[in-house]
Write the structure tokens for this entry.
Amino acid sequence: MLVVGAGVAGLTAARQMRRRGIDVAVLEWDLQAGGNAQGGVVQGQPCPLGAHYLPQPGSSLPELQDLLIELGAAERGLGGWQAREAWQVHAPAERLYDQGAWHAGLLPIPGDSKTRAEYRLFAAQVREAMRQGFVLPTHRAPFQAMHASLDATTFSVWLSAQSLLDPGLRWYLDYCCRDDYGAGADEVSAWAGLQYFASRHGFHVPGDPGDDDDPQASQPPVLTAPDGNAWLVRGLSAPLAGAIHLQRLVWRVDEERHGVIAQVLGPDGAETWHARHLVMAVPLFVAQRLLRGPHAALKSVQLARAPWLVANLALSAPLSNRLGAPPAWDNVMRDSPTLGYVNARHQTLDPRPGPQVLTLYWALPAAERARLLQDSARTWAQRVIDTLRPTHPDLPEHLQAVRLTRWGHAMAVPRPGVRREVAQGALAALRQSGGRVRFAHADLAGYSVFEEAFYAGWQAAEALIG
């Protein structure tokens, strides 16, 4: 078997096949495996270069629960599946800079009864969505009239129709969309906006009492490590020793009657790889360029994609804290164009002040893709610094190095209509396609998160094994 692409989906597919005793090779153009879940090092300290956390998976994705048990990050006992504390984000987990001070949590605290009423209304809408079938992976959820209606409009328009107008709530919901999809509430579908909450942890109003029967009242800490999701990449890669071939640029794939041929540019020149079957674990816009004579479903896919900038800032010492909540793992500034930053040393449990690495995430509008590529690293580094100056004026005196990672087409954006394509259109056809080439990528779900990539790889492998 041949797998093209060593991102999460490709590694999962290859790992699953090797576990079943199937000979497999993975071809990857990059210098390391992992796709946008890669990790790196700056000034000797580990840091994420892309995705930096994994929400604890629910019962709808037992295969991922099993992987986390195998990696030593979780266990099953009398109480069911449970993530180990060492891998859960340590408190304090989140804080928000708003109105001149830091506040615990990311959702602005409701200041009056009208605002709290809107928060509760949205919480009720999320609870109803959870009853209607919003799960991860998306392919295990139904697609009914409610889902189709939500998929037909933007999240922003839907919120207005529900009289959810509070500026703080709207900012937070827009932030969540940019965090998971790389685009805001004006661009993603209402289905996607609800999926963010209803498929995972729900929505809980700050200060409201918890309800033991309410699945959203308790939000389990997400899983992470100093280098983000790179620990998951290492776990997926471990059984594939000798099977991952880096710096192999696949430029053509031909599906023939008796097998598949991949034309590759390797470190030593041109290579030709032959296999009986191939898993195409690359973004679909790349697959469109590689596969000769692709069928109509692949040709018709047109997913919008979001560019991202990830900036790792190495500091000689912790930054001075402003008024309010203490430094947390995730630190967000309400008025910033960025998504804020995570502290890569937060999980080390080392209480001593010392060198720090802050990882800042910036989801850019699609129109900024060319500028992301063309502007110099120095220019982008200065922009990053400027976004942090209002809350951290002492940043320049502690800054030692900046490592920038540019993701030009990082994430598929679930605009209106995409969920229908996943359920009934071209994306559904690609996921279910037979033949010697199988597709495995988060794009098949219409948006880019670890759970969808993992499931796409697992499903493609099972289809070939079965």
The radius of gyration is 22 Å. The chain has a mean pLDDT of 94.
